[in-house]
Specification:
mainly alpha; 152 residues
Amino acid sequence: MRLSHRTIYGLRAVVDLAYHGGDEPVQAQKIAERAQIPGQFLGQIFQELKRAEIVASKRGPGGGYFLVAPAEELTLARILEALEDLPEVPEVARERSCGESGGVAAVADEMCGEVVERMVGLWEEVTIADLVERGEALGVPRQGYEGFVYVI
């Protein structure tokens, strides 16, 4: 399976919001620069993510985009569903594994169905928070969001 640029860019944008924004809105221009996404294309992607209730926006000074749900609740599957025209993947996997064809073809179809089911399972279990943790583990510097700062 091949993911579209729209989906790859959308995933980058959502991870950027979680990683650099925290609870604060982030300007689309900043996201486009950091995530290497063409600016006009990002606007279209954000419209789709807004329709899917993954992101929201705030207008005016200090405005931008922010995640609607906590990163721990946003799975890759939810983002893929918002941005890709995917068939009902578990159904496709079941059809492939029913052994409609005979001989070696049935074996190959069954294996393809198993691969698809595992891939869907991975999309459903990996969250945006997991990707944020990977970024932290890799030492990716944060811009904007600094977490809580206590000054006494």
